C-alpha cells in the first residue's frame, strides 16, 4: 500500500469554535480529552466538540450537522435525546440525584433485565463497563480460588490493570503490559491468546492446570474491528471451561441489548457463567452491570467474601434512563426493524464496492457495522487487520466529516445504527460513504499514476 496518499478535501464546514475549544482543552486535560478514544490522533484535524444531539443527528459548536454513527460509542440505541428517556430522567431528577440507599428504580431495572433474559439469575449494578468487567474477574477468581485468566488479542475489556495486557511471544504465554503503570506481576496473571485458535486454549489449560480462573471474551469482538466469531468456536470455549473447572465470562458491554435483548448469549444460545453489561442499560448515562448464575453471584458481598461496592451504583437517574430505554427495546418488532434498516444500509455500500471492484469490505451483525479496507472474506483475528489500511480510513473519515457524516475517529472502531436512523437518513449516509470511497480510490489511482 502506498504511504504517499494525502488527504485532499474541499473545506465545506467551518470548525473555528471546535478548534478554539480544543486549544483550551489542551491546557486542561492530557491530550485535550477525557478519554483517548475521543482524540483525533488517528485521523486528520482536531476533535469535533458536540453541542447537542437529536434523533440520528449531532450538531457541533460551530453549528455543523452530522449523521451520527458513533451514538456515544453504542449506548444510544434509540438515538439522541429520545423523548421517553428524557422524560424519565426529568421525573427522576425532581426527586433527587443520589441517595446512597436502595431505591425502587434498581429493583425495576433489574426485574426488567432478569425477566427477559434467561441467561442470568442475579445481577449487580455498577458505574461502567470497566467496573463491571473488573468485578466479574474478581468474582471468578474468588469463586474458583484461582488467579490466572485467559483473554484474547483483539478484545477490549476496559482499563483494569489485569486486562490492559497484550500478547507475549509464543503460543500460550503470559501477557505483557500494554500500558505504563501496570505491574509485571499483574500482567503475569493474564494469558493472552489469538482468537479463533483452539490449540492455544488447550495448551494454556495444559500448561497451567488448576490455575486458570476464567476465560473472558467479547462474544462479538467490536473494539478492534468487528471480529465476528463462529458459534462453534464459542461452544468450544464453553466446553473447555467446563472440562477445566474455569468460568466463562461474556463481555457484552457492546453486544448486550444491541444484538437482541438477550445479547450474544441468546444469539448463539450459549450459557456463560458470568456476563458483563454497560452502555445500553444506562440510556446514555454511566451504568455497568454484571450477573450470572445464583451460586456464583452468592459469593459477592454482603452474601459472600468477594468484595465489590460503589457509592453511585444503581444511581436513580441512570436507572430511570435505563428502564425507559430497555422498555422500548422490548416492544415487539424493535430489533427486527432496526436490523432490517441496518442491513439495507450496509447492502447499499456493499453493492457499490462490488460494482466498482474496490478491495474492501463492510462487516456487520445486527445494527453494528465496520468498514475495512480489506477484501478478506472473514477477519476474525486482530492480526488479520492490515495496519497500513488505516491511512485510507483517515482520508475517508476526513471526507465524511466534511460532508456531514460522523464516525468514531479510528479505523478500528465500529459504527452503530439507532432506531432514530430512518431509511431515508441511512440512504443519504450510505450514498455519502460511497462517494467517499470513489474519492479515495480516485486519489489512490492518481498517486499510482504519478509514481
Descriptive notes:
The structure is a single chain. With 451 residues, the protein is an alpha/beta fold. It has two domains: 16-68 and 333-450, Aspartate Aminotransferase, domain 1, CATH 3.90.1150.10; 83-329, Aspartate Aminotransferase, domain 2 (3-Layer(aba) Sandwich), CATH 3.40.640.10. Helix content is 37%, strand content 15%. It has helices at residues 16-26, 83-93, 104-115, 129-144, 184-187, 198-207, 231-244, 263-268, 294-297, 316-329, 334-356, 390-402, 423-450; strands at residues 50-54, 57-60, 65-68, 122-126, 148-153, 165-166, 176-177, 190-194, 212-217, 247-251, 274-278, 288-292, 361-365, 368-372, 405-406, 415-416. The strands form four sheets. It has a seven-stranded mixed beta sheet with strand order 4-12-11-10-9-5-8, sandwiched between helices. A four-stranded mixed beta sheet has the order 1-2-3-15. Helix 7 links the parallel strand 9 (212-217) and strand 10. Helix 11 packs parallel to helix 13 (423-450). The chain is globular.
Amino acid at each position: 500500500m502506498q504511504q504517499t496518499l494525502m488527504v485532499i478535501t474541499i473545506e465545506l464546514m467551518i470548525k473555528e469554535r471546535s478548534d478554539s475549544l480544543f486549544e483550551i482543552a489542551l491546557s486542561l486535560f492530557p491530550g485535550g480529552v477525557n478519554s483517548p478514544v475521543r482524540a483525533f490522533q488517528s485521523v486528520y484535524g482536531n476533535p469535533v466538540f458536540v453541542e447537542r444531539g437529536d434523533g440520528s443527528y449531532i450538531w457541533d459548536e460551530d453549528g455543523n450537522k452530522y449523521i451520527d454513527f458513533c451514538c456515544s460509542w453504542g449506548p444510544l440505541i434509540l438515538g439522541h435525546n429520545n423523548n421517553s428517556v428524557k422524560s424519565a430522567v426529568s421525573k427522576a431528577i425532581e426527586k433527587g440525584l443520589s441517595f446512597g440507599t436502595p431505591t425502587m428504580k434498581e429493583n425495576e431495572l433489574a426485574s426488567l433485565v432478569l425477566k427477559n433474559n434467561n441467561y442470568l439469575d442475579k445481577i449487580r449494578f455498577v458505574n461502567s463497563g470497566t467496573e463491571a468487567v473488573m468485578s466479574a474477574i474478581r468474582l471468578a477468581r474468588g469463586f474458583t480460588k484461582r488467579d490466572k485468566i485467559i483473554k484474547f488479542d483483539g478484545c477490549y475489556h476496559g482499563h483494569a490493570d489485569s486486562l490492559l495486557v497484550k500478547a507475549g511471544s509464543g503460543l500460550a504465554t503470559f501477557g505483557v503490559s500494554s500500558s505504563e503503570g501496570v505491574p509485571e506481576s499483574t500482567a503475569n496473571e493474564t494469558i493472552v491468546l489469538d482468537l479463533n485458535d483452539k490449540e492455544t486454549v488447550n495448551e494454556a489449560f495444559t500448561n497451567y492446570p488448576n490455575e486458570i480462573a476464567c476465560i473472558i471474551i467479547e462474544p462479538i469482538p467490536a473494539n478492534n474491528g468487528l471480529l465476528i466469531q463462529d458459534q462453534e468456536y464459542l461452544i468450544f470455549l464453553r466446553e473447555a471451561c467446563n472440562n477445566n473447572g474455569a468460568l466463562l465470562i461474556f463481555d457484552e458491554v457492546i453486544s448486550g441489548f444491541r444484538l437482541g435483548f438477550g445479547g450474544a448469549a441468546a444469539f448463539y444460545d450459549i450459557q456463560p457463567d458470568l456476563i458483563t453489561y454497560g452502555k445500553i442499560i444506562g440510556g446514555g448515562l454511566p451504568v455497568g452491570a454484571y450477573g450470572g448464575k445464583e451460586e456464583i453471584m452468592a459469593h459477592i458481598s454482603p452474601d459472600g467474601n468477594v468484595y465489590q461496592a460503589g457509592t453511585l451504583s444503581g444511581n436513580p437517574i441512570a436507572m430511570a434512563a435505563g428502564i425507559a430505554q430497555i422498555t422500548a427495546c422490548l416492544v415487539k418488532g424493535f430489533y427486527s426493524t432496526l436490523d432490517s434498516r441496518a442491513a439495507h444500509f450496509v447492502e447499499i455500500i456493499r453493492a457499490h464496492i462490488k460494482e466498482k471492484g474496490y478491495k474492501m469490505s463492510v462487516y456487520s451483525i445486527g445494527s453494528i457495522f465496520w468498514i475495512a479496507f480489506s477484501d478478506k472474506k472473514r477477519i476474525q483475528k486482530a492480526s488479520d487487520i492490515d495496519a497500513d489500511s488505516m491511512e485510507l480510513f483517515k482520508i475517508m473519515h476526513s471526507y465524511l466529516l466534511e460532508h456531514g457524516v460522523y464516525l468514531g475517529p479510528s479505523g478500528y472502531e465500529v459504527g452503530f445504527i439507532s432506531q432514530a436512523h430512518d431509511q431515508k437518513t441511512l440512504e443519504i449516509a450510505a450514498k455519502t460513504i460511497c462517494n467517499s470511497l470513489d474519492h479515495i480510490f480516485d486519489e489512490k489511482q492518481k498517486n499510482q499514476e504519478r509514481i
